[in-house]
Description:
Blueprint: E1 2-6, E2 24-30, E3 35-39, E4 42-44, E5 47-52, E6 55-59, E7 62-64, E8 102-104, E9 108-112, E10 115-117, E11 124-127, E12 131-135, E13 138-140, E14 143-146, E15 150-153, E16 159-163, E17 166-168, E18 171-175, E19 179-183, E20 185-188, E21 193-195
Parallel strand pairs: 1-3, 2-5, 3-6, 4-7, 6-9, 7-10, 8-11, 9-12, 10-13, 11-15, 12-16, 13-17, 14-18, 15-19, 16-20, 17-21
Amino acid sequence: xxxxxxxxxxxxxxxxxxxxxxxxxxxxxxxxxxxxxxxxxxxxxxxxxxxxxxxxxxxxxxxxxxxxxxxxxxxxxxxxxxxxxxxxxxxxxxxxxxxxxxxxxxxxxxxxxxxxxxxxxxxxxxxxxxxxxxxxxxxxxxxxxxxxxxxxxxxxxxxxxxxxxxxxxxxxxxxxxxxxxxxxxxxxxxxxxxxx
Length: 196
C-alpha cells in the first residue's frame, strides 16, 4: 500500500510555536510501512520526518531554513532516518542525527524537483545502508560543520546518486562545502552543477 500527502498552494508546514528542541517529528516511516509520497509540500526549519528502512518519495517539495522560528539552536531536521550519530557533526542537541533536512539510514529516499535552501546544519546526510536518489533538485546556501549541503557517511554500503542537480553557495566550517564523502558510493550524473 502507499500513502500520498499533497500540499495546497501557499500552505506551509511549520513547527509548533513552543518547540524548544532541535527538531519536531511530524511523520515516521519505518521498515514495513506503506511507501510515502510527499507532493508539493513547503517545510520550514525545525521539523523532522524519520525514515529508517522505509521508502519515501518527495516531489516538488521545498525545505526552507530562511523562515526560522527560533535561534540557531533550532536546526533544520526536516527529514530524518536514524537514531545513530555521526562524529564531526557538532550541531547535535538530540540523540537523532543533527541538523539535516534529510537523513537516510537504511531506507530509500527519492527527491525530485525539490529545493533545500538556507538550512543551518546542512540538507542531507546518508549513513549505513541508506539509498538516496536526487534528480532535478537545488541546494542553495546550506551550512554545516562538514558537508554544507550533503554529507555521505555510509559505512555499510550506502549509495547516493545526483542527476540534473545544482549546488550553489553551500558552506562548511571544516570540509566539503557542497558535498563531503566520508564513506559510501556517490554517483554524479549528467547535469549536476557545483557553483561557489
